[in-house]
Amino acid sequence: TRVTFVQHDGARHQIETGDGYSLMEVAINNNISGIDGDCGGVCACATCHVYVDEAWTSKLGERTAMETDMLELAADVTERSRLACQIKVDTALDGLTVHLPESQH
Ligand code: FES
Questions:
Q1: Is the pLDDT of residue 11 over 90?
Q2: How far is the CA of 76 from the centre of ligand 1 (A)?
Q3: Stretch 37-59: mean pLDDT, rounded?
Q4: Can you say how many angstroms the Cα of residue 105 is from the centroid of all Cα atoms in its chain?
Q5: Ligand 1, atom nearest to 35 Cα
Q6: Cα(98)–Cα(15) distance, rounded to whole angstroms?
Q7: Ligand 1 atom closest to Cα of residue 41
Q8: What is the tally of structural domains in the chain?
Q9: Share of the chain above pLDDT 90, in %
Q10: Of 24, 26, 29, 48, which is most buried with the most CB atoms under 10 A?
């Protein structure tokens, strides 16, 4: 499955990954700066905040209540904001593109 991280300065990182990882784990495993994943992916730190590309927002489904609560701690949250640790990568998400917030840079 191919996912793309776009840095806030426009740099694009296209990653080919196996399925079953969270998007946060994919970022960490590939040294994408801008995603820290401080809590290890249990939805408790908001350092994995990403903006989902417009084309993909509806395909990812709804945020969980816990995710919405945690996003309140993140800066510059929009309706496209998600926590990358709560997005599981599978083939249905092939081509997924997310943008990294300036505040996490
Ligand atoms: Fe901590 Fe996602 S890694 S909330």
A1: yes
A2: 16
A3: 95
A4: 14
A5: 3
A6: 12
A7: 3
A8: 1
A9: 92
A10: 48
For a mutational test of ligand 1's pocket, the pick from 21, 24, 87, i.e. the residue with the most ligand atoms closer than 8 A to its C-beta, is 24
Q: Does the ipTM exceed 0.95?
A: yes
* Interatomic CA distance for residues 5 and 69, integer angstroms: 24
Q: How confident is the model at residue 104 (pLDDT cuts 50, 70, 90)?
A: confident
Residue 57, domain extent: 2-104
Average confidence (pLDDT) over 63-75: 95
Residue 100 has pLDDT above 90, yes or no: yes
Global pTM value: 0.95
Please, are residues 20 and 27 in contact by the beta-carbon 8 Å criterion?
no
β 2-6/96-99 pair status: parallel
Give 31-94 as a DSSP string.
Answer: T-TT---TTSSSSSS-TTEEEE-GGGTGGG-PPPHHHHHHHTTSSS--TTEEEGGG-B--GGGT
